[in-house]
Specification:
Blueprint lengths: L1 E9 L5 H14 L6 E7 L6 H12 L4 E6 L1 E4 L2 E3 L3 E9 L11 E5 L14 E5 L5 E3 L2 E2 L4 E4 L4 E8 L2 E3 L4 E7 L2 E5 L2 E2 H8 L13 E4 L7 E6 L5 E3 L8 E7 L1 H15 L8 E7 L3 H5 L4 H9 L5 E6 L1 E6 L2 E5 L3 E8 L3
Helix pairs in contact: 1-2, 4-6
Amino acid sequence: MKVASSLASGPHPLPELAAIAVKQALSRAGLTRADSVLLFLTRDFARHAQAALVTAARAAGSLQVAGCTAYGLLTEDGWLLDQSGAAALVIGETETAAEPDSPLLSFSGHGTMPWGWQTGSPRAGLLDSDAAAWAHGRLADDCCAETRLPGLRARIACATGLRLLSETITVDAAAGYDLQRCGGLAASDSLQRCLPAELRQNPPLHQIVVVAQPGLPGVPILGVNGDSSLSLAAPLTAGAKIRWAIRQPLAAEQDMRQSLLAAVDATKRPDFAVMFSCLGRGPLFYGNDDRDLLAFREQFPGVPLIGAYGSGQIAPVDRENRLFQNTVVTLLYESAHV
């Protein structure tokens, strides 16, 4: 198998950027044509995506082109947020047999994960509101596309980037989406007690979540009510066990490194990787740099990578597919054939 990625950018969303990215990736891989192509385009391509797909397919000599538009793009060489661009990863000289345990790569332009994707085959992918999505070289009419890379298996690393602030707390009272009391205190008082002293005066609610179960997406806090209850993005019930958690750069970077170490096969280096990150992570979160990308490059130097930043990340958890935010989902691909 031969594989390589490339990132092309310019001041305008021209279809030629997709062809440039594909051709550069082919050259890096030592290929004249590709068996499969993953292609991500910046959001300003949404109305011109079909033209870019046609040029990419012609450059690759293949109709097996899948991907979506997204808020930003990345490869192992760097990231792109402020210009028009195309990121391409080409795969060639692969076996044709599909690996049934490899998750479906899934791309959606909906505001929430499609209902039919929540169960069934394991999925990993990206959701970005109003995005265009494509597979097999064609735009998806319903803005939902999926593909499976043949002859490959993937190990999934899911880094939520959360720092736990408390031990397990029992929910004493809740009404719908309002968390009223937990741990014998009003909900906001319970949170205040668990926060570091420097954050108690002005708690950064947009960075704090309720963790109802390890491995599942955290529940965001929408606001503080006059009765000291907290409005959440999902309902809880009395008796549930929760923990307070916060997103902070250092904890997020450490979590990213640990998730990659836990997922990797110590005896085999991945052939390439696909990364789905959040627009709330990357340079906007870490301060003009993507520490998650840096962690990947340090762990897997020289491994081809393609990725995109969106509003939601999809990953399988406990036999269901879940939608995460502020998370990095990385698929470490290796050949399924010895």
